[in-house]
Amino acid sequence: MVTGAGRGVGRGIAIGLGEAGATVYITSRTAKSLEVTAQDVTRAGGRGVPVICDHRDDEQVANVFARVASESQRLDILVNNATGVPPFDVLFTKTPFWELTADSWSELIDVGLRSHFVAAQHAARMMIERRGGLIVNVSSSGAKKRFAILPYGVGKAAVDRMTADMAEDLEPFGVTVVSYWPPPTATERMLEGAGPGDDPASWSLPAFNGRVIARLASLPDLHRRTGTVLVARELGAELGVDDPRQQRV
Question: Smallest Cα–Cα separation from 225: which of 117, 137, 120?
Fold first, then answer.
């Protein structure tokens, strides 16, 4: 399952997993974007299953996992990607925190961080039963270095801390939990918001992230990485995953 997969990094992850032959449940609030992603996953070699879900609504989230359990009887990988994102002209600034609206906190913490927590709870219960599985919490280098508004960095740092603590709780059951830092990625929104100081030609294509995660999930010694932060391009180089850039399109 990939949450928030209607577009952007989530969409690329879903397609990359589809290339590996996975059945991928994809969630988003928007039916049209879900259908497009599902079709792309299926064309890539997998099976895309679109599920409308607003990750601010715990009941909707519970229903998604109940559907997966009913239809597939197992969950091998959860990629927590869903989040609320303010407009880029707000997000990628160093606006002092006292000049921000409270909505910026709600979108990045109450939606993003909390949705990772709630979805991971459901996934963990399924994975514990079969003593295995992989939970990937999409985070960012913003956890360590400020390049956006304060709630963004707080949220990403919290994701990394949450990953470490989840890994400790799940250690007896063989379930692996990692934080994943995508590279600058040529998503629709990133390309639309590119400014004079940006270099889109150096950005990775979205499916790269899915290919890295698919390769990671196949490792026989996967569990030794539990609780860690994985940097996409470093991990891709280690695992031999090609990193196509926007300039090659």
Answer: 137
Strand bridging mode 133-138 / 47-52: unpaired
Look at the block and give the residue holding tokens 């899915």.
210
Q: Which residues make beta-bridge pairs with 244?
A: none
Q: Give residue-wise pLDDT tens across range 203-236.
A: 999 999 999 999 999 999 999 999 999 999 999 9
> In the prediction, which pLDDT does 85 show?
78
Active site includes 180? no
Q: How many residues does the chain have?
A: 249
> Mean pLDDT over residues 87-108, rounded?
86
231: its two tokens: 């940097």
| Cα-to-chain-centroid distance, residue 81 | 3
The predicted model gives 171-197 an average pLDDT of 89
The catalytic residue among 65, 92, 105, 152 is: 152
Residue position matching structure tokens 């985070």: 139
The dihedrals phi and psi of 51, each to the nearest 5 degrees, come to -135, 115
